[in-house]
């Protein structure tokens, strides 16, 4: 925060408290010329106004609130750039990466700053890490039968993965459905954990310059035919010859290659849309998909539990 805005906030805040104090003092003064407790000679509907001062208990409480406000502002941040005597803050506001966040957390503990978020995270680690460590000792294929572990994994999934794959894990355009047993890189527990730990980066090149509009149309026809779609036979036959360029990744039979993350083109499951227009766009311009790595965000023990939940989603499929 700039010095100007820091001063602006400080002046307004302290000025408001001072104004409340002065208003209270003014209200305690008797400027009516009538003794306290006497009739003010005002009446309405039979109700007579008496010159009574503010109740003493109310006045004392108002003073206490003002004092409490000043103490609070002295101890906690609230007056512009003032950090507070207790050096408390809700979180490290200016970090822009996980590395900066960790460094700020480390520095905060070393210098005695009371960062509430860091304290809560430390408390959570001390309390829950032993539980995750116990889960990590159990293989995914066995842990999948633990209903409580699945619930924990689901909560972690909702917090970290649902933004892309959806709260029901069924994905959306460009983000895989995790419930259908159709895996780009493999659906075994080991492969799921590998994906979560290291992330994935998939790239489908664009072929428009290489094949032209007509060539793309032919390859699209052949690709759609692999999943049983009705297409123009002439285009399909021409596209089959051109498909040799695609077979390097998708295989000669079009069933994909999980080592490369190349999709199976025979199962009629399409990540970016199944319409003729969508497939044409994919072939023309290519696709780029990135699955981020979570090893810097979640511990390996937590990733083990998330992998168990994800693995469980497709086991009855």
TrEMBL record:
Subcellular location as annotated: Cell inner membrane
UniProt keywords, alphabetically: Cell inner membrane, Cell membrane, Electron transport, Heme, Hydrogen ion transport, Ion transport, Iron, Membrane, Metal-binding, Oxidoreductase, Repeat, Respiratory chain, Transmembrane, Transmembrane helix, Transport
Protein name in the entry: Cbb3-type cytochrome c oxidase subunit
Membrane-spanning ranges: 7-24, 60-79
Family that this chain belongs to: Belongs to the CcoP / FixP family.
NCBIfam families the UniProt entry points to: ccoP (TIGR00782)
Cofactor detail note: Binds 2 heme C groups per subunit.
Organism: Fluctibacter corallii
Domain Cytochrome c residues, every copy: 148-227, 234-314
InterPro entries: CcoP_N, CcoP_N_sf, Cyt_c-like_dom, Cyt_c-like_dom_sf, Cyt_C_IC, Cyt_c_oxidase_cbb3_su3, Cytochrome_c_Oxidase_Subunit
Role description: C-type cytochrome. Part of the cbb3-type cytochrome c oxidase complex.
Gene3D superfamilies registered for this protein in UniProt: 6.10.280.130, Cytochrome c-like domain (1.10.760.10)
